[in-house]
């Protein structure tokens, strides 16, 4: 096997989880990397790391380095360094917390700012979490879809409680057909598929509609009742009488 063939067989990707506190980022990361679901909410301070190895078509082994970034870091000086170099981003919000959706614009801008000197931007997937609480939804699906279309994001809905998902396949095709190339069929539970689809897009591997619509290995767990996070802490700046235009 040549050196180029060996390079194709082994890859490592940096995947970053972003979004407000209590949106479910850590639950998704743990569900994906450790096949577990925590019953108690614990705020992520700074960031946590997870590693997971998956296999894509053509026996391509991919190690995903998952960076779970705390929701309070958006005003911090280290956020751009956490994001820099990521090939994929999962933007997570809580469908029952409208403020977590409104703050997505800030998170997305931070991703673009952190990579403004890079030749390419990371692939980004918008994750509407807690779909098991549909009766408590405050973010309309139309707003989710519009945000995806305006920003070229992959659209996904998941539940950290059940592991289930509702993928918007038509919007996915519109957003990613320019990138994805090959077809593959897998049977994976939905939280795993969030990460697997993002990795496939980064590497130019196409997942077909039938595979994305499969629902298998549903994870059941108790729903944790914790107070909604008030949103990310913004970085305070000193007031100035000087007006600057960028």
UniProtKB/TrEMBL annotation:
One of its GO terms (molecular function) is GTPase activity. PANTHER family: PTHR47978. InterPro entries: P-loop_NTPase, Small_GTP-bd, Small_GTPase. Pfam families: Ras (PF00071). Transmembrane segments: none annotated. Keywords: GTP-binding, Nucleotide-binding. This is Ras-related protein Rab-28. Belongs to the small GTPase superfamily. Rab family. It comes from the Eukaryota.
């Amino acid at each position: 096997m040549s050196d180029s063939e060996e390079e194709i067989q082994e890859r490592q990707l940096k995947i970053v989880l972003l979004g407000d506190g209590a949106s479910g980022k850590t639950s998704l990361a743990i569900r994906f990397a450790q096949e577990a679901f925590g019953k108690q909410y614990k705020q992520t301070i700074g960031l946590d790391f997870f590693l997971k190895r998956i296999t894509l078509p053509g026996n391509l082994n991919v190690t995903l380095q998952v960076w779970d970034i705390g929701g309070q870091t958006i005003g911090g000086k280290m956020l751009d360094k956490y994001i820099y170099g990521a090939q994929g981003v999962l933007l997570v919000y809580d469908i029952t917390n409208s403020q977590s959706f409104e703050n997505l614009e800030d998170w997305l801008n931070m991703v673009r700012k952190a990579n403004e000197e890079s030749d390419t931007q990371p692939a980004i997937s918008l994750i509407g979490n807690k779909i098991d609480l549909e009766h408590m939804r405050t973010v309309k699906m139309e707003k989710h879809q519009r945000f995806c279309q305006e920003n070229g994001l992959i659209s996904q809905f998941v539940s950290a409680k059940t592991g289930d998902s509702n993928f918007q396949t038509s919007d996915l095709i519109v957003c990613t057909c320019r990138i994805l190339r090959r077809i593959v069929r897998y049977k994976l539970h939905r939280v795993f598929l969030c990460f697997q689809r993002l990795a496939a897009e980064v590497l130019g591997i196409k997942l077909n509609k039938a595979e994305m619509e499969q629902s298998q290995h549903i994870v059941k767990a108790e729903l944790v009742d914790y107070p909604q996070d008030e949103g990310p802490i913004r970085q305070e700046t000193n007031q100035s009488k000087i007006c600057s235009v960028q």
